[in-house]
Amino acid sequence: MKKKFLGIDPGTSDYNCAYAVYDGKDIIEFGTIDLRKTKTFAKRLTKIARELTDIIERQEITDLAYEAFFLQKGKIQGSVRIPMLIGVLLHYADIYNLRYMDIFPSQMKKIVSGSGRASKEEVQAALEEDFNLPSDISNHESDAIGIARTAYELSQHIPLSTTRAKKSRKSTSR
Length: 174
Description:
Elements: E1 5-9, E2 16-22, E3 27-34, H1 41-59, E4 63-67, H2 76-95, E5 99-103, H3 105-113, H4 120-131, H5 139-155, H6 160-172
Parallel strand pairs: 1-4, 4-5
Antiparallel strand pairs: 1-2, 2-3
Helix pairs in contact: 1-2, 3-5, 4-5
């Protein structure tokens, strides 16, 4: 089975949650779960859960990545709610047996643009160039694409200790 990475930019306070599906070569799908018409936070989480279920099943997702939680000065309400959304994401990772990881913005910026301090505009320009994306995608969607790509890139690195363990087992079986 080919790996497919679902990247999530977990927004709830500005009424959207962006996602992207990446297979290591192409962006298969990306978009925004529009939460503007949902009246309560609980209903927003429910709508995100329903949409994620559809994406995970339809695209046969193998790995889930989301932007790591960090407190944003002046955005306390949104900052408090993001961990709740991450809990929903982890719940679905468990249900669907997905590998998952949180991606820090600086990690994503470094992998996508070459600089961990790149601006949102620099990240978006790099992604538009790499994937021939339309120039009118939202910052949230470009972040989700960057998160999916970063998760893929990080998953390609095998820890040295795993490599050593495999070699030592082979040598003792002779």
